[in-house]
Amino acid sequence: MKIIKSDIRLDSACPFQIERQILYQTDNRPDCFHWHSCFEITLILHGRGVYYVNEQTYEVTDGDIILFNNVEPHGWEVLSGTLDLLVMIFQTEFIAAGFAVMDYDYLKPFIERGSNFKNRLDSDSPLTGEIASLMRSVEEEFTQKTTGHLLMIKADVLKILTLLIRHSQDSTKSAALLQEKKVKMMRLASVFDFINSHFTERITLADAAAIAFMSPNYFSAYFHKVTGRHFNEYVNSLRVAMADRLLAETDGSVLEVASRCGFRNMSNFYRIYKKAHGDVPPRERSAQ
Asked: Domains in the chain, please, with CATH?
């Protein structure tokens, strides 16, 4: 699984956007997760797909809603045809500007994660239907841009967030947790860039630790705490994912593929590949 930061640029005067998107099966990259500095609420207009977030798998279909905060790496996969979406993203400043109410109160559903929290709201829930209706109203205002449209948009977004507050509350956590997680993700951003660009080469934990300006031991623990994976596991997952693509798309030998993906010897490749998939590559199985 590769983790990258998506650079989403919103207007500083109005850090908000809502648009329709179409995802195709040809765009599927379930091994590549991304995160961004925006909060996201996505309505599934049509199609079937899967979202991956926080070690959870959420199947989605028409009418479902999926939520992400601004520090959650997540990925997706279209199961058939296309996945038609209405995607709403915004930054904290959009909620806070012009209001005396603390923005944290409105962002609680994204920050506080009780034991019953799910990133997906099911289509058969009355709450989901009400939020979907409000999102369509927001889309209309955002598109037509008639007089006072920003005020109408903000009012509807605040209503959406209030509905989410009522749906999911947990007073045991604080906004500091979200800020702490964001700082940790930002501190590793350059490390992810380095690994994603050089995983086919010989890279070590010490190399990555130096980029993060940490000692190797501290970096090892820090990386695992933030990603849930050890450094070598993350690097090897990228190599195995690349090997899968090359084995499916090229005629190169398993030896050539393993070498291109950064494996130094075949025994290491087979050990790591079997750990990921439970068996040797299909091409090897057919030769046995």
From this structure: 2-173 (2.60.120.280), 176-287 (1.10.10.60)
pLDDT for residue 156 is more than 90: yes
Its pTM stands at: 0.60
- Residue-wise DSSP of the chain: -EEEE-----BTTB-EEEEEEEEEGGG--TTEEEE-SSEEEEEEEEEEEEEEETTEEEEE-TT-EEEE-TT--EEEEEEEEEEEEEEEEE-HHHHHTT-SS-HHHHHHHHH---TT--SEE-TTSHHHHHHHHHHHHHHHHHHH--TTHHHHHHHHHHHHHHHHHHHS--TT--HHHHHHHHHHHHHHHHHHHHHHHHTTS---HHHHHHHTT--HHHHHHHHHHHHSS-HHHHHHHHHHHHHHHHHHH----HHHHHHHTT-SSHHHHHHHHHHHHSSS-HHHHHH-
pLDDT in tens, 73-111: 888 899 989 999 999 998 877 876 544 444 556 666 665
